[in-house]
Design goal:
Elements: E1 2-8, E2 18-22, H1 30-39, H2 46-65, E3 75-82, E4 98-105, H3 107-115, E5 118-120, E6 129-135, E7 143-145, E8 149-155, E9 167-172, E10 175-178, E11 182-185, E12 189-193, E13 201-211, E14 217-225, E15 230-233
Parallel strand pairs: 1-5, 7-15
Antiparallel strand pairs: 1-2, 3-4, 6-8, 8-12, 9-10, 9-13, 11-12, 13-14, 13-15
């Protein structure tokens, strides 16, 4: 059963429509899969299964490394190359081009997915939800320059900039820094300056607000932390 809840749809102009978000999905590791195989009465031991899987992984890696495509009931792979070639005589250059491995579900997994059922659960959290964080100047979504403008997209992001408890905070190993310079403050998008005082290295972004779903200011401070770790670098 696929459990889902609904949240604000940021891809359309309609302020009322929603999009589904899958929640509470159980994650199965390789060890979990091995145990499931054994539970089905397989005569193979766990050591046999692990040995086979290791050999299978090595074969898959060799096929991919040699530029081959894999087509099995579980997965289908292919390659694509990104980047611009200057002219017909130009050749692949790692500094300008990149090889991308495309992985899609095979027929067995596609059939299984078509048989899965969906179940709606309670409404999603009313906390701020961050979808992306990007350096607005460089367009980088992994590295942010100190002193640069961060574009934060998501939902329920708007906050009262006059309240020091609310806002966008950069959480680093040395502590947290509030982004005092706010350029745009909307429910679906924020533009703030990452302070030049933020130390270089890994950090996470957190939005804190007291504005509720009815867009009124309440007493409860709600927080939403970005799920990816970013890297702060010194500005130019």
């Amino acid at each position: 059963m696929i459990k889902y809840s609904l949240r604000e749809n940021l891809l359309t102009a309609d302020p009322d429509d929603c999009m589904a978000q899958v929640v509470d999905a159980q994650v199965y590791t390789q060890e979990d899969v091995n145990r499931e195989i054994i539970k089905r009465g397989s005569s193979l031991t766990e050591a046999d299964i692990v040995a086979y899987q290791k050999l299978e992984q090595e074969v898959y890696k060799e096929i991919v490394a040699n530029g081959g495509h894999i087509n099995t009931p579980l997965i289908n792979t292919s390659f694509s190359i990104s980047g611009v070639f200057k002219n017909p005589a130009d050749s692949f250059d790692k500094s300008r081009h990149a090889i991308k491995l495309n992985v899609n579900a095979g027929n067995a997994l596609k059939e299984a997915a078509s048989q899965a059922k969906a179940q709606k659960t309670e409404a999603a959290s009313t906390d701020p939800y961050i979808t992306t964080v990007t350096d607005k100047v460089t367009g980088d979504s992994a590295t942010i320059k100190a002193g640069s403008i961060m574009e934060i997209t998501g939902s329920r992001l708007r906050f009262d900039a006059a309240d020091s408890e609310q806002g966008v905070f950069a959480l680093t190993a040395a502590g947290e820094v509030r982004c005092e310079t706010v350029i745009e403050n909307k429910p679906a998008r924020l533009l703030v300056m990452l302070p030049a005082s933020v130390e270089t290295g890994e950090f996470t972004v957190e939005v804190r607000t007291k504005i509720d779903s009815s867009r009124k200011t309440g007493k409860t401070l709600k927080t939403g932390r970005f799920g990816k770790t970013l890297t702060a670098v010194a500005g130019a």
